[in-house]
Specification:
Layout (H helix, E strand, L loop, with lengths): L5 H11 L4 H8 L3 H8 L7 H11 L25 E3 L12 E5 L9 E8 L14 E15 L2 E6 L3 E5 L4 E5 L5 E8 L4
Antiparallel strand pairs: 1-2, 2-3, 3-8, 4-5, 4-6, 4-7, 4-8
Helix pairs in contact: 2-3
Length: 190
């Protein structure tokens, strides 16, 4: 389903540590069924979920988006070479209402990751996320609502926000037209 093969990378991490789906799911608070769906690339997890899995396995979140073992010193991603992760699913198994594209999938030891997130029309999912790190958000087009630590913040095209990602947060479009948001996150060391 995803071009990054995130699920197979997670399975390799789990099997290398001789862990069961049940033990990993129990430790991180996901259902075994959802973790299995992620490993089989049947659903795509939100960025915050990937961050939680990366911390659990003591790897950088960017490792889920690398294509090879090479580690170039710079990377150019042309518009027609970007890869989209669609049908993002929350830990509860509901459609979270967005897809995302990574702007860097070759460099492995990044200190930050940038994504173009496309928020679909209004979604009723109320799942909140938090993870170690910081994030910068810039609204490319449309309008969106950021629920940040129980405060609803409306951002319009051209607006930006910088925040500590340990604060509970959620993004959603405020209307049926959707929105496009550039997000850059810096992970804190594992």
């Amino acid at each position: 389903m995803t071009e990054y093969h995130i699920g197979s990378k997670l399975r390799k991490l789990r099997l290398a540590r001789k862990l069961t789906l049940q033990s990993v799911a129990g430790e991180i608070g996901f259902s075994t069924a959802l973790l299995s769906q992620i490993e089989n690339d049947n659903v795509s997890p939100p960025i915050a979920t990937l961050s939680k899995l990366a911390r659990y396995f003591s790897v950088k979140m960017s490792s889920f988006f690398t294509e090879t073992d090479e580690n170039p010193r710079y990377e150019i991603i042309r518009n027609d070479n970007r890869k989209t992760v669609s049908q993002v699913i929350s830990p509860e198994g509901t459609n979270h209402g967005y897809s995302y594209e990574s702007f860097s999938f070759k460099m492995q030891d990044k200190k930050m990751s940038s994504f173009l997130i496309t928020l679909s029309g209004k979604i009723s999912d109320n799942t909140m996320y938090s993870h170690e790190g910081e994030a910068f958000i810039y609204v490319v087009n449309g309008s969106c609502e950021i629920n940040l630590d129980s405060e609803n913040i409306i951002l319009e095209e051209g607006d930006s926000l910088y925040f500590d990602t340990t604060l509970a947060h959620r993004y959603r479009s405020i209307d049926e037209y959707g929105a496009t948001v550039l997000i850059t996150e810096r992970e804190r060391p594992c």
